[in-house]
TrEMBL record:
Name listed for the protein in its UniProt record: ChbG/HpnK family deacetylase
Entries under Gene3D superfamilies matching the protein: Glycoside hydrolase/deacetylase
GO BP terms, alphabetized: carbohydrate metabolic process
GO molecular function, one term: hydrolase activity
Annotated keywords: Carbohydrate metabolism, Hydrolase, Magnesium, Metal-binding
Cofactor annotation: Mg(2+)
Domain of life according to the entry: Bacteria
UniProt lineage: Bacteria, Bacillati, Actinomycetota, Actinomycetes, Streptosporangiales
PANTHER family per record: CARBOHYDRATE DEACETYLASE, YDJC DEACETYLASE FAMILY MEMBER
Any one Pfam family match given in the protein's UniProt record, by short name: YdjC
Length: 285
């Protein structure tokens, strides 16, 4: 139920049961399941580093390996809903039979790559998006795993208002939270009395590679009060499956697992969380 406009809305930190002046950071590793080098780095950055959760891509080649790691290591995770493949040589496809989701496929019968996202969004039928999203959710739930949240691979807030709204409806149905990045989506969730980030969302692919560790350190020291989120993309770089963005991924891994990152977070009294507290807020509203 929406909070009436004339009533004060609780802050995200209040909804999470945290002090109003706390500096709170979600560090979520995206692309879990893309390949085993990414999987290994995601686990290391959570168990040995400063990340707190991750987002699994069910259609990808490393998804089975990732789900086995989740099962054995009890890693908190969400689902990185995937309608996009990263590059021409990344041949993962939908989990739904292709003849049932033709509007999600390019002329060659493959998922669209990032440069073709406008074409995907222009033609994707919402019923086919829902069919594929449910297939990805089902693959995770059928494996006996319990996610915390939903977000999207390469599509900020799903890329379209109706896809965002569909995802929120699925989250309500399955008892999950949703990552909201852009202002319209954040405002929709605020009106429902749900916690959202208070500051600009950081995607690690947006950072310059030169001096990246220094930039991460600066961002931590300057972190404002309220709820912030970083979407990070670590990899050990050992796999040849993913070439694009390799330096982005290895530098993320290096910083997230570094003593320096842990030291700054401790010195600055930053609280790092995953999506479990947000999921609880969704369940309690």
């Amino acid at each position: 139920m929406d909070v009436p406009d004339h009533e004060p809305r609780p802050s995200s930190l209040e909804l999470l049961g945290l002090p109003a002046d706390a500096r709170v950071l979600i560090v979520n590793n995206d692309d879990f399941g893309m390949d085993e080098a990414i999987n290994d780095a995601v686990i290391a950055s959570i168990e040995e580093g400063v990340a707190a959760s991750c987002s699994l891509m069910p259609p990808c080649p490393g998804a089975s390996h990732a789900m086995d790691l989740i099962r054995r290591r009890e890693i908190p995770f969400g689902i990185h809903l995937t309608l996009v493949r990263d590059a021409g040589h990344c041949r993962w496809g939908p989990l739904t039979a292709k003849e049932h989701v033709p509007s999600l496929l390019d002329e060659e019968g493959e998922l669209f790559t990032p440069p073709r996202i406008p074409d995907l969004l222009a033609g994707a039928r919402l019923d086919e998006v829902e069919r594929e999203f449910r297939a990805q959710l089902g693959a995770v739930l059928d494996a006996g795993l319990t996610p915390t949240h939903l977000d999207w691979h390469c599509l900020a807030d799903g890329g379209r208002d109706d896809i965002f709204d569909l995802t929120v409806a699925l989250a309500d149905e399955y008892g999950l939270a949703v990552r909201a990045w852009l202002a319209p989506g954040r405002e929709k969730l605020r009106r429902r009395g749900l916690p959202v980030v208070d500051h600009d969302f950081l995607d690690s692919f947006s950072l310059d590679l030169d001096g990246k560790a220094e930039r991460y350190a600066e961002l931590l020291r300057a972190l404002p009060s309220g709820l912030s989120e970083w979407a990070t993309h670590p990899s050990t770089g050992d796999s040849g499956a993913i070439d694009d963005g390799r330096r982005v991924r290895t530098t993320d891994h290096d910083f997230l697992t570094s003593p320096r990152a842990r030291d700054i977070i401790r010195e600055e009294e930053i609280t790092v969380i995953g999506y479990e507290p947000l999921q609880q807020a969704w369940l309690q509203r």
